[in-house]
Amino acid sequence: MPTVVTLQNGQTFSFTSNIATDLDIIPVIDGSRIWSESLEDRQAVAEEIREASRKIGFFYLVNHGVDEEYTEAVMRQAKRFFELPEEKKMEVFTGLVPNEYVGYHPMECYNRNGWKRQGQCAYWKDQKFAALGLIRRTDLSEAFNWAYDPAEDPEAVDQSPPAVSIWPSDLPGFREGLYAYHTKLLQLSRRLTRIFALALHLPEDFFDEYIRQPEAGARILHYPQQSASVDEQNGIGAHTDVECFTIVNQDETGGLEVLSKTGAWVKARPIPGSFVVNIADAFMRQTNDFFVSTIHRVINRNGRERYSAPFFFGFDRAKPLEPVPTCVSADNPMKYPIMTGGEYYTWRTNKQKQTNTRNTPGQRAN
Ligand SMILES: O=C(O)CCC(=O)C(=O)O
Ligand SMILES: [Fe+2]
Q1: Who lines ligand 1 at CB under 6 A?
Q2: Which residues form the Fe2OG dioxygenase domain (predicted)?
Q3: Which pLDDT belongs to residue 101?
Q4: Whose alpha carbon is nearest atom 10 of ligand 1?
Q5: CA of 246, closest atom in ligand 1
Q6: Mean pLDDT of the region 81-94
Q7: Residue 278 pLDDT more than 90?
Q8: I need a labelling partner for 157 at 20 to 30 A (CA). Which of 28, 88, 115, 322 fits?
Q9: pLDDT at 116
Q10: In a 3-state reduction of DSSP, which class is residue 50?
Q11: 297: which strand partners?
């Protein structure tokens, strides 16, 4: 019997086996050419990215130009933060900030894949109901998110938007370490956006006006080693990302899995020095499904603690996500209603925050 799951973007999907395989379906792309002076080189890498983005929606980027000084520093800061006592981390609880995804997301409080039966709910622990099936637990991970801040963007055109992130007290160097990384990833993402324009057979500067003030949030995550089975619990449940594309910096533990088009879970094994890049929902909408936003999850049964740092890049909140002209035609009209980036992100953020079992009605974002 295939398992059917409904995601927060409304999409349903199914898979027949919950066991991930090692199939090599995620291409490894040499990113050095995205920085090349030669348009031919940039077009060549763009064609590889085009194929990856429409077939699987995931690729590894090696030789991406971000020094390991930054990728390692962000992991060190992650370890420092997650080692703090729970009450210290709860000082920056995300439930305190309506509409924004910033701050601390506690362990085992979210349920990304929409499972109904949660460990915290007493009724499912009752013998007579427990007999109805597995007790399913909320995601075994904790996260801290921070947002774009024009003061940390060397290319910012407008310094007026307020910084929305919240920061723990008494953790010197934490904010600085995270923003040093964030600024490098902003630079890489702006460059990649130009390559995505070429990949969509558009002029290279086509999306430039969308990324002067981008939506660019990031998070650090900690996944303890799980002892529960994959059927009972995930590190982060099956989901798609919200913005245009995500750049994931993962440690050497492993655990990220991608759902292939044939319904098999495939391991995105760690490749030292690489980033994993994936297409997210706003880009899939804008390209009228030409690029695919692929379902993924994390299961850490690898015998050690896992840390990761995804960076989520999206277009300016104020701009309508107009269809990409090379992806619509009389025979292939736009499938989605047009809304601004901001309207789309806010809707999705609130949906996600409401799966947090710790939000009290007073704290709930809406
Ligand atoms: O930890 C990872 O490798 C991926 C995390 C992820 O998918 C997310 O935060 O959206
Ligand atoms: Fe994700």
Answers
A1: 219, 221, 236, 241, 248, 250, 256, 296, 298, 308, 310
A2: 214-315
A3: 83
A4: 241
A5: 10
A6: 94
A7: yes
A8: 322
A9: 44
A10: helix
A11: 257
Q: What are the beta bridge partners of residue 11?
A: none
295 contacts 13 by C-beta, under 8 angstroms: yes
CATH architecture of the region 20-112+135-364: Sandwich (2.60)
pLDDT of 357 strictly over 50: no
CA 220 to ligand 2 centroid distance, Å: 12
Q: Does residue 358 contact residue 103 with C-beta atoms inside 8 Å?
A: no
Burial of 67 (0-12, 13-18, 19+ CB in 10 A): exposed
Q: Over pLDDT 90: what percentage of the chain?
A: 69
| DSSP three-state, residue 190 | helix
188-219 pLDDT tens trace: 999 999 999 999 999 999 999 999 999 999 99
Residues that place a CB less than 5 A from ion ligand 2: 241
CA of 359 to the centre of ligand 2 (A): 22
- For residue 358, pLDDT over 60 is answered with no
The letter for the amino acid at 280 is: A
pTM over 0.80: yes
Give the position, in ligand 1's atom list, of the atom nearest the Cα of 235: 1
Contact 261, 135 (CB under 8 A): no
3-state class of 307 per DSSP? strand
Query: Listing from the earlier edge strand, what are the strands of the sheet with 306-314?
Result: 28-30, 58-62, 275-279, 245-250, 306-314, 215-223, 142-146, 103-105
- Domain map (residue ranges) of the chain: 20-112+135-364
Residue with tokens 């899995």: 257
